[in-house]
Prior knowledge:
This protein is an alpha/beta fold.
Amino acid sequence: xxxxxxxxxxxxxxxxxxxxxxxxxxxxxxxxxxxxxxxxxxxxxxxxxxxxxxxxxxxxxxxxxxxxxxxxxxxxxxxxxxxxxxxxxxxxxxxxxxxxxxxxxxxxxxxxxxxxxxxxxxxxxxxxxxxxxxxxxxxxxxxxxxxxxxxxxxxxxxxxxxxxxxxxxxxxxxxxxxxxxxxxxxxxxxxxxxxxxxxxxxxxxxxxxxxxxxxxxxxxxxxxxxxxxxxxxxxxxxxxxxxxxxxxxxxxxxxxxxxxxxxxxxxxxxxxxxxxxxxxxxxxxxxxxxxxxxxxxxxxxxxxxxxxxxxxxxxxxxxxxxxxxxxxxxxxxxxxxxxxxxxxxxxxxxxxxxxxxxxxxxxxxxxxxxxxxxxxxxxxxxxxxxxxxxxxxxxxxxxxxxxxxxxxxxxxx
Length: 413
């Protein structure tokens, strides 16, 4: 059995950023395991720009952003095993993996960072009535076909879901000569970034139909059209609003799910809200020495935030291996009021300042984020608008956390 100080599962932006941060923190014995044939993860197919403004202070495409990290990984000679699938992770940090050269093999690690990313929610989760013709794709699969393979999925397009991938693919399909008839969104607000709504829909006069969904799919061999309808406040279709749209392609952008089979297999508790691990501020899970970061922990809107979170996990893993990561005598648990959907981390286990990321459940205007310990208010900050598509964060100072037992995040008006 191989023995390695730090094993990172996933060679996307999270895995590479975590590896570089751990190396900088003093860990030499690092191995990245990646199931694909190259590093970079999903960024390889994201050829649009808009990446890197926070991290590098300039606008990059996805492959350019990934290459910045890959180049540094190569320069620092951090070992990488490509085309390697991890089969399981055990509670005592034994990794079982396989590839064509070594067959099935095991690695015993002092620390593990989980950085497997996320996947798209499939059509089967939607219960849309109708047939199963060709022409129905997830937005990410369509992106891969167009950007990496050079195939055009179709010419007459409807998109269900207004997440960032759906918005970006509305623009991409338009660039390639397709007609995007509508982007339908079940919720009364878009799940994507405001800049993507402007640049991908409004700039091309593509209609965004909020509180609408696809209720029926038509066609036998190939998709011939879809029926859409407006939904009420309980998200139930209103029959008299049904509208038929002829199309040959339906793209689904209906949410991302963290790839957490390995996490659950290791016996790590998952959050019901994020579907990712429950972690402390160093991104350490409830199992000592196993950390998680990036989209496997919670779905991010910007890859720059993935990188910064991965650096936290990389430094945390390094401190754990070097014996510097001493937990305090108390753990502060964080709860939310429902308007705040979730926080990451979900608990604070060490001393020092802590940055807490959070997402809200709806659009709130002229609202205040309040962090309290019982009747004591730790932090209060007003903002003109909170939106589900935008990640928010607050920094809690160490002196404000002295004597605190529980933290409660709420949105108030």
